């Protein structure tokens, strides 16, 4: 059986631990596709990745052909078809934004260059490690021979959070909901948007108005509860769980790649802008997307009202500021 080579960086971390077993069990590529796993870690993370590899062996997954562990990016990405870039430098106390961007450019620049040199010609990359959008920009810029639309940053977790919140508020099943969109940066400025969403075929705003006592109450709920709840859900998870989202982030990363490869009629991903919706060309910004299996395409032609426009502009302004900061440091 042919096998797909999948590289996971930061494989010894908590998202890595939640990812590897599901990928090996077939959750990403289905029950008919074998996988070869490549785990990239820094030297301090190798033992943890090795421990995960021992457990992978103990699962005796029928689809898992091999597991290789390395701290060398070229070895990890050699022949990779899919790459999940999870390992990143977290913000530590007293760290300025410029320091954070620079530290991550020092990771995602070299990883992009290694992908450029040794990955398979059909490589697709999802960046999970934060600041994910700008890390994707840096990795793509360091990989001039790989088309920019093969890179994306993960906003699927935000999308799924929005989906679950809307389902709960409308007492619907998540499968009844279509047309949710996450716009902008994977940060607290993101805009989770239900303006084009439907619940069992009816406009989401109409259903919300019915349940909450009018259009105004629905608008207030969206601005005061829904948007902040989704945008700050990561912080809520940390305060309740004591550590950041791991299983849900891993699930979202798998869903992102699975739908990119298998196709979807609608989700969200931070993909390369070519100027759609006024987002400056070259930025990796979240949009509503579809895939026919060949990769994500931005859904075009949606009407944006003033509220949506100003929220999207604010989040995109943050992306521009991150890009400019990285440029000023000479890292882009
Ligand atoms: P952990 O600290 O548990 O794991 C990170 C792992 O990456 C560590 O084992 C570390 O040794 C490794 N690492 C660091 N630098 C590396 C490098 N240069 N090459 C290879 N490995 C390297 O963090 P975890 O909870 O797994 O989160 C990973 C990243 O995901 C963080 O940046 C986090 O902010 C980000 N997240 C992104 C989300 C998204 O939706 N885009 C949601 C979840 C999460 O917050």
Which features does this protein show?
332 residues, alpha/beta, Rossmann fold, L-2-Hydroxyisocaproate Dehydrogenase, Chain A, domain 2, 2 domains, six-stranded parallel beta sheet, three-stranded antiparallel beta sheet, 14 strands, 46% helix, 19% strand, globular, binds ligand NAX
DSSP summary, beta strand count: 14
Task: Report the bound ligands by name, code or SMILES.
Answer: ligand NAX
Gap between N and C termini? 41 Å
* Helix coverage percent: 40-55%
CATH homologous superfamily heading of the largest domain: Lactate dehydrogenase/glycoside hydrolase, family 4, C-terminal
Structural class: alpha/beta
Instruction: Give the ordered list of helices and strands.
Output: EHEHEHEHEHEHEEEEEHHHHEEEH
CATH level 1 name of the largest domain = Alpha Beta
Count of spatially separate domains: 2
Shape: globular
- What's the architecture of the largest domain, going by CATH? Alpha-Beta Complex
Domain Lactate/malate dehydrogenase C-terminal: 155-325
Pfam family, one: Ldh_1_N
GO molecular function: L-malate dehydrogenase (NAD+) activity
Keywords: NAD, Oxidoreductase, Tricarboxylic acid cycle
